[in-house]
């Protein structure tokens, strides 16, 4: 009897081994079922393909083949029954006029999905030039922003890789309430003069990883807002743009803390700023930013390579009192090398009410080859710990009083 059971068990194993493995069900928008064609509006076909794929009990894949397709707008919503991938091989093109969109803050959105993969090597073309000329958010704090190219909300255990975001009308990628999500091998592109085209903005999210991506925009390459935790940025090239920024923080009431930010092995070229933390001077509620670490950064012709700015004001006028209520603590700048476009290569301007604490400058090697004065640094309301830094970059001008 034991021999028979052993033989049956072995036979069952052989049968299982020879059974073909299940592959993800494919939902191609150009198939006869959905009928999309290059050059036409793919909105309806893509919505139907997503709905069918999301309802699939097994892993599924929505495919947009090579070619250029019009896409008026789209929101892909879960939860889905199984892991789902959208593979964009072609180019999806937004309306040039943002007024044609129903959801005025978003062109393409993904919401409430676990185990999403967005991939394929394709392009999301926001056609943003018209919106850049009309956008006054750089000077009007009550403006109505144009649509974001790609908005990710309430995602978990997801991955966005090998796609291009081109010429977004506003932010390229906006990440909100997402957990354990990776963005890798992205190309994000808009001209230097495009306004408010942040590459990736993160808010209220935990466990976000951005890696091996090329970002060049008219604003921050990466910006990290309040209630963000365990954010890692590695292997990113930035430029043109305004740098890699924490903030701006302290603009709204009851903002939550920022903790655990690592920016490492990045290169910034011809950017307005390098690595910076920015807070408004008149923040309405207390909060903090702590555990922020920049390491192994290369600067090439960067205007403000190392910057803490607690007097940040992008508008014509800001109230300077009361001072910023954002407490900055446990921040390190390590092994930062390269060239500064201006003689002021290190600027740490902290708030009078809550001076920055536990700030470290280690192995900073920046040069300036211009004719606007000697290489220098300045600090206010902070006493950084300094190791391996020349006197010029070591905050020789340092005080616990406001800078003039």
From TrEMBL:
It comes from the Eukaryota. The active site is at residue 242. Keywords: Cell wall, Cell wall biogenesis/degradation, Glycosidase, Hydrolase, Secreted, Signal. It holds the Pfam family Glyco_hydro_28. One of its GO terms (molecular function) is polygalacturonase activity. One of its GO terms (biological process) is cell wall organization. It is found in: Secreted, Cell wall. InterPro entries: Glyco_hydro_28, PbH1, Pectin_lyas_fold, Pectin_lyase_fold/virulence. Its main location: secreted. The keyword Hydrolase applies. Residues 1-24 form the signal peptide. PANTHER family: PTHR31375. Belongs to the glycosyl hydrolase 28 family. This is Exopolygalacturonase-like.
């Amino acid at each position: 009897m034991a021999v028979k059971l052993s033989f049956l068990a072995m036979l069952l194993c052989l049968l299982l081994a020879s059974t073909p493995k299940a592959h993800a069900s494919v939902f191609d928008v150009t198939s006869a079922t959905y009928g999309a064609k290059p050059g036409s509006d793919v909105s309806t076909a893509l919505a139907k393909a997503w709905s069918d794929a999301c309802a699939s009990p097994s892993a599924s894949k929505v495919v947009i083949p090579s070619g250029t397709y019009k896409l008026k707008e789209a929101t892909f919503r879960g939860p889905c029954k199984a892991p789902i991938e959208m593979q964009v091989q072609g180019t999806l093109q937004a309306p040039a006029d943002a007024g044609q969109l129903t959801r005025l803050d978003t062109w393409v959105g993904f919401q409430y999905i676990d185990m999403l993969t967005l991939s394929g090597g394709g392009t999301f073309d926001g056609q943003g030039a018209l919106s850049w000329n009309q956008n006054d958010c750089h000077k009007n704090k009550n403006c109505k922003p144009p649509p974001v190219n790609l908005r990710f909300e309430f995602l978990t255990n997801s991955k966005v890789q090998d796609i291009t975001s081109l010429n977004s009308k506003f932010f390229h990628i906006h990440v909100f309430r997402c957990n354990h999500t990776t963005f890798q091998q992205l190309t994000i592109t808009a001209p230097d003069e495009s306004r408010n085209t942040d590459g990736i903005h993160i808010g209220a999210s935990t466990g976000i990883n951005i890696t091996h991506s090329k970002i060049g925009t008219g604003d921050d390459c990466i910006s990290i807002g309040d209630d963000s935790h365990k954010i890692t940025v590695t292997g990113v090239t930035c430029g043109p743009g305004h740098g890699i920024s924490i903030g701006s923080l302290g603009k709204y009431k009851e903002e939550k803390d920022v903790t655990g930010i690592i920016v490492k092995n990045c290169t910034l070229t011809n950017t307005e700023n390098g690595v910076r933390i920015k807070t408004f001077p008149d923040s309405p509620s207390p909060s903090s930013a702590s555990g922020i670490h920049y390491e192994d950064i290369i600067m090439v012709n960067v205007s403000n390579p190392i910057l803490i700015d607690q007097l940040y004001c992008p508008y014509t006028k800001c109230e300077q009192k009361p001072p910023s209520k954002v407490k900055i603590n446990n921040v390190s700048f390590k092994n930062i090398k390269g060239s500064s476009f201006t003689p002021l290569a290190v600027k740490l301007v902290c708030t009078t009410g809550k001076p920055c604490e536990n700030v470290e400058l280690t192995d900073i090697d920046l040069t300036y080859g211009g004719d606007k004065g000697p290489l220098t640094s300045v600090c206010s309301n902070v006493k950084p710990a300094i190791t391996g830094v020349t006197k010029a970059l070591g905050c020789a001008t340092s005080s616990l009083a406001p800078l003039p």
